[in-house]
Amino acid sequence: MNKKYALFPGCLMPTEQYAYELSIRETLPLLGVELVNVEGFSCCGEPMKSVNQLLTLYLSARNLAIAEKHHLDIFVPCAMCHLALTECQHVLEKNPAMKERINGMLAAEDLTYTEKRHIVHTVDLLYDEIGVQKIKEHVKKPLQGVKIAAHYGCHLLRPSEIGRPDDPENPQKIETILKALGAEPVNYPQKLDCCGAPLLANLPESALTKTGQKLQAIQEQGIQGLVDVCPWCHKMFDSRQAKAGETVAAKLEVPVIYLTQLLGVALGISSEKLGLELNLSPVEKLQLEAVK
Amino acid sequence: MRRIGVFVCHCGINIAQNVDVKALTEYASHLNGVIVAKEYKYMCSDVGATLIKDTIKEFKLDGVVIASCSPRMHEHTFRRVANDGGVNPYRVEISNIREQCSWAHSNKEQATEKAKYLVRSAVSKALSLEPLKPSTLKVIPEALVIGGGIAGIQTSLDLANDGFKVHLVERDPSIGGHMAQLDKTFPTLDCSSCILTPKMMEVANHENIELLSYAEIASIEGSIGNYTVKIRKKPRYVDVDKCTGCGDCATACRLKDRLVSEFNQGMGKRGAAYMPFPQAVPLKYVIDDKKCLFLTKGKCGDEPLCKKACAQNAITFDQKEEIIERKVGAIVVATGYDVMDPTLVYEYGYDQSPDVITTLELERLISSSGPTKGEILRPSDQQKPKSVTFILCVGSRDETQCTWCCRIGCMTALKQVYLLREKLGEDVEINVCYNDLRSFGKGYEEFYRKVRGLHSNMFRGRPSEVRPMTDHLKIDIFDTTTSKLFEIKTDMVVLVPAMMPRLDATEFARLLHLTLSGDGFFLEAHPKLRPVDTFVNGIFIAGCCQAPKDIQDTVSQASAAASRAATILSQDELEIDPLIAMVDEDICTGCGICVEVCPYEARTLNERKRIAEVNDALCAGCGGCIAACPSNASIHKNFTKKQLLNMVDDIM
To answer: Of the candidates A91, A120, A149, which is a domain's last residue?
Structure first.
């Protein structure tokens, strides 16, 4: 039976991280996931959180309410949006007064938040909803010999109290999925380090230093490449890799690829359809076209 | 016609300020059956007691009502006073007009009215109270001590020296517990085995102590003064009467140096035939039946080499588990603690690098009888570390693991800093990451001051992560005293893990009917006034099975438990409180519901008479069986249905 989700695109994916959306739309339907485009979704609110918390809550609640109107669970590929919506749901479930206040604001658009909808991210959608066994069964080209490291991203793991897709200290779901695809996940001490993105607006130099340091450590350990699952992390590691290299005075050549892109390769989808040419990092070094 | 006296206490102003004591006394004096009513400032004082006694005699009273504080405070006192005056102590009724009246209300007029109702209902109960007599029970003047760590050793020696026979049961092949694993002890730095071994030897040689090592409790029945204990003796596969402890079997064992040594915390190796440590008591070898080739596979080369090597012919592979029975009057539980598994705090890398160890493992490295003969060597490359970092409170004071303080971590780390500085000199960099340094005991603060002078770096904060790099470890820590983020590069990390209840504490508590506190340690009967008693009469607790504590406190508590046990053992007979359940044999149908509900195993079915009975010694008077009995055959003495309904009628 097909699983049906409203696809919540967020702001980054439709404006610059096209490869993530392309690969999601190519791969997930093959695994029995029906993605529904819902009109009216806005920003998740998270970027405004430090300025106006109520606004953040309102925006998140608005998106939840829209999904609710269509009786759909929500698939949020961006880790930051996923956190915003999950946190909002947590607050509204725990704080009836706030729920009433937010619903008062939503009434202007004839929307209302009443019940908890399931909010999933790429990682738990693949691991918990679809299941590793099913993914394994669909693999056409096992990624043999691809030794690659996983980057989860901070928003995906913390704060653990409100429920996040994986363990905050020792996450293993991406690695397990990679193994199912036939690749060899590599452990590395910097696994939980931040990509730097949250600092990008105010302290761009510090942000790029974080990015550069992590990529440099990966390169020095001889790891072939990095897999990520968040458009913000990818923006830093892939799109800004050259800039990050300049900041830490290192020549960085680390292939960075979305988990859904790798999944697509293993499912036998062509690289154009997966947007591999949109990656700015040297993904060709992974020699994915050689995979049979 | 009954003759009741009512005595109203002011409790200073505690009662008097919210209850009109004079009016209450006046009211009470007119109640049916009341001959006299008096008030006094402190009824529990000597003068108050004399007043009660004299009044009893003067008015020839046969029942007494005291309107005062909660019966939990002074019921016992007033029962004794009444007895001295000549009234049966179980014909005393307390009316609680303090906790349940004057303290709870602010309107004096209404509180006085309520007090009148309370006293009236107490008088109605006093009118129907039966005179009761406590029964007696013979005491077996022997004790069972469970656990042979320092707590159990101390308790056993104290009781044995008092002249009581002690049966000391230890689960491991040797007594000594965690203390035997330590090198030196804080804050005096005396050598742990130097102060422990003589005590262990004394246990082994004491004529009043029966040491049952490598044995566990199978079951416990009976009650205070008369417990029947079944003890499961695990097979050692070594005849202890023949074994001289020479060690030829261990040298010959095919698995020599191939199994993990529990005593050395995995830092050293042993064989299947082994002695846990050189000072073990009893000094007898044991064969590990989970690992021994002959015992697991039925074959060990052509023949078991240990058997061949043993000149005494002490190896007996056909030894079987044995259940023995002992009868004792009191039990002291001293089962100790478990160290928290540090892998639960994944981010500190215990299972990611061999160079992340625990304090207990470092203790074995420091010990001159340990696997490295006292040399501090890094596990990964057996080189002297240039930098060692301690992380305190691993799992302790942590809402996701153990919320409590382990009470020994700070001082253990400080002691080890001192010993490392002594062994490795100034070459080694020592870092300590702490939350708060708690040096609370006698001489502890002075020791801390001494260690602060040893050029160690103190960081206040919880490290966020320990990262194993290729040849070193990296620690991120935010120091809250300087508000700076530090990155520490170090060779070895020593974790100070939390102290936990034994993993089988819940199961063990069920065996003995002990209560656990929220944290899983055994619960004492009162945190301040009955710190080594439990809610089961005749069973006492000592040491870390009650809560984490250091050796000093453990030994004090062990002696306290011995003394509490001796109070029972030194009596020939014990009085049993008569306020317990009884059975109306004419009504009882023998359905057995009371047997099922009784948490103290005090109810049994008499198959011959087809009725349920009460074991007076076991019954705690909880009332469970009275509520459960469908035919009203279970009766709580002096809390009968009629007595209670009379009270209710009078209070309505």
So the answer is: A120
